[in-house]
Amino acid sequence: MKTKTAILTLIIFSFTFNNCTNDKPNSKILNQVITRDNITSLTEQLISENLISKEEIDLIAMGITRLTLLNQDTLVGKTLADVIKIQKDAEIESSIAGLRLASTKSEIVLSHKFEMLQFLKNDSADFKTNLITFKVTNLSDNNIKNLQGYLNIMNQQNKIIKKFPINIKKELVAHQSYTLTTPPYIHDENNENDRELRIVGNILKPAWQPILVEFSNGKKLGPVQ
What we know:
Immunoglobulin-like, alpha+beta, four-stranded antiparallel β-sheet, 8 strands
């Protein structure tokens, strides 16, 4: 019996405590209309009230900055409550866009494997050019008909010294590997990076940056940067 009484007392206390903590009054300043002359006054009153959370303060700060930069008249006529909602919606939209971009980039990367095999000089009497041989493997369950990206060549300080565009418009069968060679890239003897590439081309660090993959079933991912 004592145990039941103690439990009942605890429940009543918890209910009362929660109601008391939720009785914090709402800010009246949030519903006042912003004019060209009162934004600093409103924010100071809001700070003095001490009735809103840090998250709401941050939303207002970012919101009034963003809306003012969009158009100097955008903020006028709105309330601080409007600013909070607009900024929150904008952040959700930005997060959704970021999520879509991240998932697209990840699926592009997961669809294949790219390996640089060799950097080759390909000179003639008239032109100096370079070739790159590479191996690409389709890791997906669907054939790939178009794969695009950049082969970034890095020096020992991880600085990109050359960015080679690579377009593979060839049917890459699912789970198959292919050894391919790029078309010739013009070598510029007056370019310091080109000269460095020829001296130590095969010991520099390649970094594959895929930007688009298109499957034979019509699915397309990208382009992304």
